[in-house]
Specification:
alpha/beta; 7-stranded mixed sheet; 4-stranded antiparallel sheet; 13 strands
């Protein structure tokens, strides 16, 4: 048998959310509401459907390896130079590319925990050493992260807003932290959910204009609903981006993904509809969870983490029986909590009705 590289044997398989088809088969259901993957339940811009309908003649050609049109669009939008952008097959690939470009075996990778699991996977892939820093009150503790930095530290992964907790970093604390980090350490600010921040937040792109060791990651999977197209991008100093491009597959973003991203950026009405649904839905959760006496974490994403009033696996089973897939908090080391993606308003009402019914029945039995 061919033996795998030593870093690979340390890696546990990535725990993705259950697929619709697997749940249908397991529970004998015909209809499933998936609220486990933080996908956009409002779909995507209708302009994307028009794109696929009228540009099918282009599908037999290789896509532009430079993503020229999308690069120019985003360059103007974010007021950065075109060479400051790198594109990937979603955030997963971008995170992998960063690890391949910058992490050496034996170097340390600092990861607040719990957070997005792929940071740990890519660290182990490179035979680097993961250094986990626990959250404080469900939020990333930047002071604790700073104190963990050593002469072996190479990359710090910061998910902001953090997944699965939905917390966001204070502006002044983040700016102060960036100043403290040695220039030899790469700071990755993964901003997959930054578009959902309800309160006014500062333009984090300003950070990369004064700090060459910071890269921001953005995605079209969440707000724009293009998760199946697989497209994300990074913004950073030109020399930093150049090194990432060296390990990038020459043709890694499809033609349809590039074009879908462009037309999605143009559809402001769809974007506002998604944001309004997210705002209304989160406030619905807040008010109902308070009535039920269940702890929740105010969210800056398109999901919410809250106590289920039962063990995580019990909550997962309860919702599956009712045709809804949610995420068991035990997967993140948070037993008793569940993470639920924001669905349509009606879907969120259904989640709360199931939860309320179960809690009321449990409390009645305990009386």
């Amino acid at each position: 048998m061919v033996k795998e590289r030593s870093g690979v044997e340390k890696i546990a398989p990535y725990q993705a959310a259950k697929s619709l088809e697997s749940v249908k088969r397991e529970y004998g259901l015909t209809e499933i509401i998936k609220l486990a993957g933080n996908e956009n339940r409002l779909g995507c811009s209708l302009k994307v459907a028009d794109l696929l309908k009228y540009r099918h003649s282009q599908l037999s050609y290789y896509p532009d390896p430079n993503c020229t049109e999308l690069r120019e669009t985003l360059s103007k939008l974010h007021e950065v130079e075109p060479e400051q952008l790198v594109f990937g097959n979603g955030s997963f690939e971008l995170i992998s590319l960063i690890a391949h470009a910058y992490l050496e075996a034996g170097e340390e990778s600092i990861i607040p925990y719990p957070t997005f699991g792929w940071y740990l996977n890519v660290t182990l892939q490179m035979n680097a050493i993961p250094v986990l820093v626990p959250l404080t009150e469900f939020a990333i503790d930047l002071e604790a992260v700073a104190q963990t930095i050593s002469d072996k530290t190479k990359v710090i992964w910061i998910c902001n807003p953090n997944n699965p907790t939905g917390t966001i970093l204070d502006k002044e604390l983040l700016l102060s932290f960036v100043e403290k980090v040695p220039k030899s350490v790469l700071i990755v600010l993964d901003e997959a959910y930054i578009d959902f921040v309800e309160k006014e937040y500062f333009n984090t792109i300003d950070i990369i204009k004064t700090h060459e060791n910071v890269i921001l990651l953005r995605t079209f999977s969440k707000l724009y609903g293009l998760a199946s197209f697989r497209i994300g991008y990074g913004i950073g100093n030109g020399s930093l981006i150049q090194k990432i491009n060296k390990v990038r597959s020459p043709i890694n973003v499809s033609y349809t993904a590039q074009q879908a991203a462009i037309v999605s950026l143009e559809d402001e009405d769809f974007k506002q509809r998604v944001l309004e649904n997210n705002r209304k839905s989160l406030h619905l959760y807040y008010s109902e969870l308070e009535r039920l006496g269940l702890k929740y974490i105010p969210s800056n994403g398109n999901f919410i983490l809250f106590q289920a009033g039962m063990k995580g696996e019990e909550a997962e089973a309860l919702f599956l029986k009712n045709g809804i897939i949610i995420r068991n908090g035990s997967e993140f080391g948070l037993d008793g909590f569940i993470r639920v993606s924001v669905g349509t308003y009606e879907e969120n009402v259904k989640v709360l009705e199931i939860l309320k019914k179960n809690i009321m029945e449990t409390r009645k039995q305990e009386e």
